[in-house]
Known about the structure:
alpha+beta
Amino acid sequence: MSGCASLDGGLSDPPRGRLQGTLLLQWSSEDGFIYVPDPTYPLIYALAGKPPIQPGRMYTDGGSIPRVFWSVKGFSPWAYGPAYILHDWLFNEHRCRRLPEAPDGYSLIEANAVLYDAIGILVAQGKADSNGEARRLIKWAVDAFGQSAWDGPCVKPPPSPSPQALRAARPITLYKVTLGR
């Protein structure tokens, strides 16, 4: 296996985009979370020549990694959390028909390329480890098996709770990671 590992941490293709902002997650259910946009420093991915991606409030399970692989470095559903949030957002926006079609919007191939690039950014920033091949294998998996999810049903965003509802629902678990500062 070590002969197959990359010595560059999976970054022979250097990242091309820019990723910054805060990732906030609210626990919803077992293995289910709500991505909550940070109003002061939102998660944004930008690539020259493409519209920036700024995910909105949505349900997410992180990366759709089969449970059997979760113990392998780089293959937990949250190893590359911000990249998975961007990918989930593009998929759901497409399914709900809120995302313009390529070339102005993002196609399935481009959404998968965003995931690949965002993983590279996280590794380059030292925010996530790479097992050497995780980035390439994840990209291969979404290219090979992502079409059915791309064509899946629209998932309506979770309701935005009022401040009173938030106070009444305590304790609320939020997980916070900030990038690019």
